[in-house]
Structures are given as structure tokens and as C-alpha cells.
Amino acid sequence: MAIATVSDIATALSAAQRMRFIKNITAPKAAGAFQSAWLGTGIPGAGAAPPAYTAGSGYTCDRTTVGALGQANGATKNWLARLQAAMTQPGVLFIADRLWNCAGMGFAATTYTVTTPGALPARIVDAGLGCELWVEQNVAAGSVTGTLTANYLDSAAGAKAGVIVTLVTSPVIGQMQPVPLADNLGISQLVSVVNGGSWTSGTWGMTILKNYAQIEIPGIGYGQTQDWSKVLTEIPANACLFFYFLANNATAPVALGTAWIIDK
User: Which residues sit opposite 113 in a β-bridge?
Assistant: First the structure.
């Protein structure tokens, strides 16, 4: 039965999956930096290391991937209906579906062609409309100059390029940098990444995700609760839910809370 009234949501919340989490997020480089919780310890545990961009398989993630929140699929349809979170540091906590990831791109100024990447997971039925592409540091890296160009296909199968004009130098482990896409048609497949500059050390990877909710933490030790009127959103079956953080300072944060997922 679909959601028709507020009473439907209230009834479903009484039997909701309460997905509790506590994640130790590595220290961000600075205020204004995005920091992934994927490799952070806690509940759920540290996420599985992404495969190398040359692996040819294993790129996509789902609810069974090590590190995912791990909600069960509903008999009808899953919805995020309530989100509660507290953090030891201020910033914005995001919950997203980790769709596809790879690692092992190096610091040489060259083109890194993704080997037989395949499509996004079957749960994405709109060819990647609204999906985002990010650089994600699986290890810390050295200083860098130059640009990064991601060649990809959008949701209309158009060949496009997204360019980071100024890369973050000496990114820390877990740091994320959004790739500005060429249009509002999302991304359905990553083809290659061109490192147009020079890194002194380290490797990095790419992650495709789709955001579902965010919660603002205004100060140290604060918490917030968002009810269905702010976060109600459909969560596709098998979603690989994970967290990332927009930092307000460079201190390592701990995030803890509960996501209520209803079946309706």
C-alpha cells in the first residue's frame, strides 16, 4: 500500500527499521572540505576498499557491501521517514546511496581509462539522472598542481566532460572533491579521468553517488532530528547507504544517530 496520508506514515513508523550508526570520521583538511565516512570505523564498520579502475568488475555497491548501512528491503517500498543525528563537530551530515566506485588512479599526469565499467546498479531506473561524481581519497596524497577532467556519459548517453579547475593540494585520507558535471543530466557511466597536473604522491579514486538527505549540526556536540516532513524520500531496494560530511573545522568528528526506514 502506498503512502496516502500522514496516518500512513505514523503507522509505518511504529514498525520502522531503526538503523543506528556511529562513525569515526577522519580529520578533514580544513573547514569547507567534504569528508567521506566510508572508511571510518564504527557501526557500520569500515567500508570495503573500492576495486582498481582496471579491475573490470566489482565496481557497483549495494546494501550487502561491507560498510553499507545494511537496511533490509521492504516488502512494498522503503522510505527514509525520520533522521536523527548528533556530532562532536559542526557541519552538515549527508546520507547517500553509494552506487559505483573505483580506486588506484595515480599521481602521474596521464589518462586513466576505466576498464569495462558497466552500467549503474539496476536500482537506478533513470540512467543516472541526479547522480553525482566525486573524487575520493582512499589514501592521503601529496601536493598537486593542475586540473582533473572526468570523461563520462550523462543520463541521455551523451559524452560529456566535468572539470575540476583547482584540485585540493595534499588531500587527506577520506577527502572528497565534487566533479562539476557539464549539465543537469547526471552521470550514467565514467569512461576515463585525465590528470592534467602533477601530484607528488598518493592515489585516489572516483565515486558515483545519489544524495537522499542531509542534516545540519550547528555546533560542537549538537544534535538534530528531522521528521518525515523534511526527509521523506523513497530509498530504492538494495541501496548502499553511507555518510559523508561537510566540515566546519579540521577536527576529526564522530557522527551518531538513527535513520528510521519504513516499508510502505
Answer: 192
Task: Return the beta strands (E) in the chain as ranges.
Answer: 17-24, 34-36, 42-43, 78-87, 91-105, 111-113, 132-136, 144-145, 148-153, 159-164, 175-178, 189-195, 198-199, 204-217, 223-226, 233-235, 241-247, 254-263
Q: What are the distances in angstroms from CA 32 to CA 65, 139, 145, 177, 243?
A: 29, 20, 20, 11, 16
User: pTM of whole model > 0.85?
Assistant: yes
- Name the CA dihedral angle for 92, 59, 109, 26, rounded to a multiple of 10 degrees: 30
**Position 189, amino acid:** Q
Q: What is the pLDDT of residues 34-61, one digit of tens each?
A: 999 999 999 999 999 999 999 988 899 9
